[in-house]
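Support request, please re-run this one:
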Amino acid sequence: MSFAEILLIAFSLGIDALAVSVSLSIFLKKPDNRQKFRIFFHFGLFQFLFPLIGYYFVRIFHINSGQFGKIAGGIILIILGLKMFSEGLKKDKDEFDKKRDLTRGFSLVLFSSGVSIDALSVGVSMALVNKGIWLLAISAGILTSFMSFLGISYGKVLGVKFGEYSELLGGLILFILGLKIGFF
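Re-run finished. Output below.
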């Protein structure tokens, strides 16, 4: 897998975090520096850890599927791409509970896990196609931190619509890479 493909996957994985951090920025109105730090640090950390967890889950349990693994890994990326694309088409977004700081405690863990769940599947996919995971995990963590920082810091400027279109773009990228990995 080329470095450009790794960066495209990492970028695609970070798009959910960008959209959520833009939404949080709009919700919080003026996020303070602690809130910004919690968002970009935790989103990046989870995005780094989840592909490793998925990858080593497959390795520890000796799931080795040969050519089938390549196809299965590609199909996982295709499904993730379609899921992300369809989420980007949804117009009704959940409203946040406006009474509490969503950048703390269990809410922060839920947001971080939610934006990183696709990365878990990507880690499984990379293990099934016998590709390395560390460069992808590091790239996803760093890129997601950066994208989350931009989202939480400049959410009002970026706007909610940008987040919706970015999910469409991320889904399309994962779909195309899934086709390439699994079938070409």
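The chain has one domain: 3-90+101-183. Residues 3-90+101-183 form one domain.
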